[in-house]
Amino acid sequence: MTAALIAILALAIMLTALVIGHSSHRRRRAPSPPVSHQRVLFPFIAEALCADALDCALRLAAAEHATLVPAFLARVPLTLPLQAALPQQGSTSLGLQEAIEQRASLFGVPVDARIERGRTHRHALRQAIAKERYDRIVIAAAHASGSGIAATDVRWLLDNAPGEIVVLRPNTDTRITPPSKLRSPEPTRSLASVS
Fold this sequence. Notes:
Layout: H1 2-27, E1 39-44, H2 51-64, E2 67-75, H3 87-107, E3 114-118, H4 121-131, E4 136-140, H5 151-160, E5 164-168, H6 191-194
Parallel strand pairs: 1-2, 1-4, 2-3, 4-5
Helix pairs in contact: 2-3
């Protein structure tokens, strides 16, 4: 009788140990992704936010656990001071940056959006690479239809920007439109109030 009691007690202890081990295994979480301070600069213009180039930048950022830095390149006419309010470009940039953030959330990529002003797209691009810290740049070259960053500006970037540069010229014109254009109009905010 004593041997049977010892066997039952041993079996109960083993089952308890298995249950505790199994429940603690289920409570363990998957390891969190490593913290990275890498940044992917993604300059774009209002006329052509290329979906394929954005997805390329997001895939790179996701693979490296990096932050995407979309930089809207705003052209300021010579007739205005460089810091002048640009309500139309401001509302366009906010809508496009909102679209970028929505798409980035699907990839699990953090976003740190910027607006860079310049007299030309190249001038704004020069400002962006001078001010921002980044590890690589992903840029959409002009599509055959002419939308995108001009080839001369891409060439200038390749000659002058430090770090890795990924240039993508997609076969098709896959543009992203701002979500705000699809909704009812909201009061416009000036670019000066954004920056």
